[in-house]
Amino acid sequence: MTTASHAPVSLSTCPPTVAVLGATGAVGRELVLLLEQRDFSLDSLKLLASPRSAGTRLPFRGETLTVEAVSEETLAGVDLVLASAGGSVSRRWAPVMGTHGTLLIDNSSAFRLDPCVPLVVPEVNLDTASRHQGIVANPNCTTILLLLALAPLRRLAPLRRVVVSTYQSASGAGAQAMAELKTTSRDVLHDRPPRNRVLPYSLAFNLFLHNSPLAENGYCEEELKMLRESRKILAQPDLRLSATCVRVPVLRAHAEAVNIEFDRPVPVDDARRALAQAPGVTLMDDHADNRFPMPSDVTGKDAVAVGRIRQDLSHPNGLELWLCGDQIRKGAALNAVQIAEAMVRHGWLKPPSPRQLDQDAPVLQP
């Protein structure tokens, strides 16, 4: 895929001032942790959240930072915001960031399908981020994990159809849902009725279909996100994709069973080689010992683990595979930090001028 790009345009030679919006949530805390672990180059870091969470103290690089309430004043002077505070919060503060010339990398669904906003998985379509107009969107967690596997495979043959079933952990519903899974599990083990308040049903020794709102076609919002976001990221608007999303009693890390139809046969060995060489992917495909990826293998890890790659017995052009990835990490926080690293590295913090947008350039590698 070739898109227009622009020459590096940076704020200055100095590292950027960075803010994490939603810093006290599960993804926000992971963002702060990753900025430290990956030694992200920054001038200073602000931690922002709702007034209710203001005053919370979080560690960062040997210091303790105090969370501030987000406001026009606390956003002033910030070059880059990593946001994971929900769509309504992002929509509320994005115009303010725009007036300050601040780049927003947003983890909510607020801007993902906006045609003017790049929707980016760095290993797949990093070049599109260069055309931002002040906002870059982070995809849904299940979409990110899926596309890390699909992108290298579609280089072997064009995709025709994808059918995916997701097994989504409590972490996808936030830190409070993770805590609730622990408490409801204790309830059941002590012969008490589980008391769920965060999730619509108890996850303790149970599972349920994803409870996001249903569309008239019978698909839930989570399932439609996978379809629409995959089409946008892959620049394949005719991609046929059907998803079934399930919440399962796992604390952290999602799993997906994926059936892929190509326009011609793809040998299993070719698929294994492509996935073994793909950035952001670890191949765990031990057929001899029947050992394939599990959520416990990827919890706290950056890479998405892929395995059980096999020929689809029902279709000559089909492959089946299984994958697991940490929803909080690569499915959310890590993807956003990788985007931020690229924006700084290539000098893309400021939007390109109209003249620069008209200039064609080769696709950049992640």
Automatic annotation (TrEMBL):
Which InterPro entries is this protein grouped with?
Asp_semialdehyde_DH, Asp_semialdehyde_DH_beta, NAD(P)-bd_dom_sf, Semialdehyde_DH_NAD-bd, Semialdhyde_DH_dimer_dom
Under Enzyme Commission nomenclature, its number is 1.2.1.11
- Which EC main class describes this enzyme? oxidoreductase
Q: Which UniProt keywords apply?
A: Amino-acid biosynthesis, Diaminopimelate biosynthesis, Lysine biosynthesis, Methionine biosynthesis, NADP, Oxidoreductase, Threonine biosynthesis
Q: Which residues form the active site?
A: C141 (acyl-thioester intermediate), H254 (proton acceptor)
Binding positions for phosphate per the UniProt entry = R112
Q: Which residues bind NADP(+)?
A: T24, G25, A26, V27, R52, S53, S171, G172, Q327
Q: Which domain of life is it from?
A: Bacteria
For this protein, the record's SUPFAM superfamilies field holds: Glyceraldehyde-3-phosphate dehydrogenase-like, C-terminal domain, NAD(P)-binding Rossmann-fold domains
GO biological process: one example: lysine biosynthetic process via diaminopimelate
Q: Which residues does the UniProt record annotate as the domain Semialdehyde dehydrogenase NAD-binding?
A: 17-132
| Pfam families assigned | Semialdhyde_dh, Semialdhyde_dhC
GO molecular function annotations of the record: aspartate-semialdehyde dehydrogenase activity; NAD binding; NADP binding; protein dimerization activity
Annotated residues that bind substrate are located at Q168, E221, R247
Which reaction is this enzyme known to catalyze? L-aspartate 4-semialdehyde + phosphate + NADP(+) = 4-phospho-L-aspartate + NADPH + H(+)
State the SMART domains in the record. Semialdhyde_dh
Q: In which pathway does it act?
A: Amino-acid biosynthesis; L-lysine biosynthesis via DAP pathway; (S)-tetrahydrodipicolinate from L-aspartate: step 2/4; Amino-acid biosynthesis; L-threonine biosynthesis; L-threonine from L-aspartate: step 2/5; Amino-acid biosynthesis; L-methionine biosynthesis via de novo pathway; L-homoserine from L-aspartate: step 2/3
Matching Gene3D superfamilies: Dihydrodipicolinate Reductase, domain 2, NAD(P)-binding Rossmann-like Domain
**What family does the entry list?**
Belongs to the aspartate-semialdehyde dehydrogenase family.
Q: How does it associate, per the subunit comment?
A: Homodimer.
The name under which this protein is listed is Aspartate-semialdehyde dehydrogenase
